Amino acid sequence: MYKSLTDLANYHASDxxxxxxxxxxxxxxxxxxxxxxxxxLRGNELTLLExxxxxxxxxxxSAIVHGRNSGGASLKMWYDYFPHATIFGLDINxxxxxxxxxxKTFVGHQGRRSDLEEFSKTNDNPRxxxxxxxxxxxxxxxxxxxxxxxxxxxxxxxxxxxxxxxxGKDDEGSGRCYCDKVINTRAILKAFRGDGSFPxxxxxxxxxxxxxxxxxxxxxxxxxxxxSGKGKRFWHRGVTSLTYLPxxxxxxMIRKRADVE
Length: 261
Hints:
The chain has 261 residues and is α/β, with parallel strands linked by helices. It is built from seven helices and nine strands.
């Protein structure tokens, strides 16, 4: 029987779906966004990479590993959704227990170019049809990974960045996802989409390649706040409408040009 990506996310207790590991954990409903792009590719022989696997270990305690989630939920989701895909996973914690006939996991920090180079070298420089960044959510780490892995994305491939926040230079923020050394990734990519340039400071080492290789950028806000006032759900004459806070998009889709290696 056909199972949607949301069905599979919920089955494996990924917060990308609508259930998550437990009632106390917020969910994102990213799978509705993803399936719109990915459903036509479901039967293809693909190579995909997920950065950040939601596993706990010596280098980082992942709070999502609780309740029904034993770790690596979205990796398991991709495995079921793409039955002919080769799947690579990169995380700061070791999780070889997730490896199987089509999944290979590796330890590395997404914000260290040397780790990313070692990952590529170890795997004979794989090229990817799809890349999903669900790592640290820090803007500097996101930008280092995008800068490096976009060159290993196949022509026409898609790169997704999750959990985009106002968490960079000149933003109000703190905590593990905040970085005051670079502008937040959403703002940088929105600026590029507007005028073709990447504002500084950023963590790109080769912005000219990115500017040449990016075909399109789309932002999505799959989850809406239903608190009073801003972001509230309204009914009028039986019609439901949703309003969103400005700069609240949490997912970005970046497509590579088909004529650029």
